């Protein structure tokens, strides 16, 4: 309708029919629904109260261990949440604890379950429409209206309470999952305290294999994460010592989609990564000042193995400290695939794709010699530096989380323990796979 200033009425069409419920089903496409008591795995709330229209679809998944809340205000995506998301989270914590107590799932003596655990496995899409939304933050990506918090909290709380009273099995499933999450967190805390002790005791002790750069300023320092010692050796020789650090990792990085926190902290490669990057402790909040480098560059071979390691590293960074990916600190280096030369003493030309190779062949004319690089270790240090590491000449891609939902789905599909969707994904994409373009 109009907005009272005599302006033309502004209308916003948010979703098509099926709406948010369909959206949440899409996010959870690869996952197993936790609520199996009815054929409706999602809980949907639609209500207008005190001039705010609230639309929510939420669904818990058995095989998901974080929460994912996608929110909108007047059709505008609010990636940094805001008062509507705060109210939604408050309702979940308050109501589920209250219902668990009244159903005898938890005793009065037991402490309330924290929201983080109750939201484990929760995917939700939350949309509010209100008269005069105020957006905050530099990117205007957070809803600021203070009154919205209480309204959303009330509406969602009442609807959720009704559902939980009608569906004791659903309540039991959510509380059981949250309780085991709390136990797992307890175990992880023990493992974390160990890391913390090490970190506090040896905060200056960086991993032995890290080749540190001279600059102590994180904003002009960058680190290359490479696989194996041969590539590590070339990178260490070819780097610009003032601003470039190199961390070689051995073996496959742990698959964090399948691993629990305790085994993650015990993994030496992951420990090296956490300490070298200054990632701190998972779940401890993120301060830019703790990052030791403002450019984290993943530099792996241009083959399937390299792509796999890259996916593992991205998954780890995304799951462990999502803010590092969201803040644009993570990059992928693209080493050249080919070196082309005319004659023994001709100038070397490097091609980063098959198309570029063909262009260079056409430019050079005649029959140039073509070398295909299978791995970074095959390049001379100076060559690796000039083609892949030197800021003036290299090719870098900044990893963004614009597509966090898609990234997460690819990670879950490729890395999770559910094999069927992974097979399907690989079969579907194998036909279209151009290894030089692998880029997650």
Description:
The chain is an alpha/beta fold and 440 residues long. The protein is 41% helix and 16% strand. It contains 14 helices and 15 strands. Mean pLDDT is 83; it is low at 1-5, 11-17, 200-204 and 432-440.
**How far apart, in Å, are the first and last alpha carbons?**
43 Å
Strand order of the largest sheet: 1-2-5-3-4
Report the helical percentage. 40-55%
Strand portion = 15-25%
Structural class category: alpha/beta
Labels describing this entry:
single chain; 440 residues; alpha/beta; Ribosomal Protein S5, domain 2; Rossmann fold; 3 domains; five-stranded mixed sheet; 14 helices; 41% helix; elongated; disordered N terminus
Topology:
Blueprint: H1 19-27, E1 42-49, E2 52-60, E3 68-73, E4 76-77, H2 83-102, H3 115-118, E5 122-129, E6 135-136, E7 142-143, H4 146-166, H5 168-201, E8 222-227, H6 229-238, E9 244-249, H7 261-266, H8 268-277, E10 295-299, H9 304-320, H10 322-326, E11 330-333, E12 338-341, E13 349-351, H11 354-364, E14 369-372, H12 381-389, E15 396-398, H13 404-415, H14 419-430
Parallel strand pairs: 3-5, 8-9, 8-10, 10-11
Antiparallel strand pairs: 1-2, 2-5, 3-4, 6-7, 11-15, 12-13, 12-14
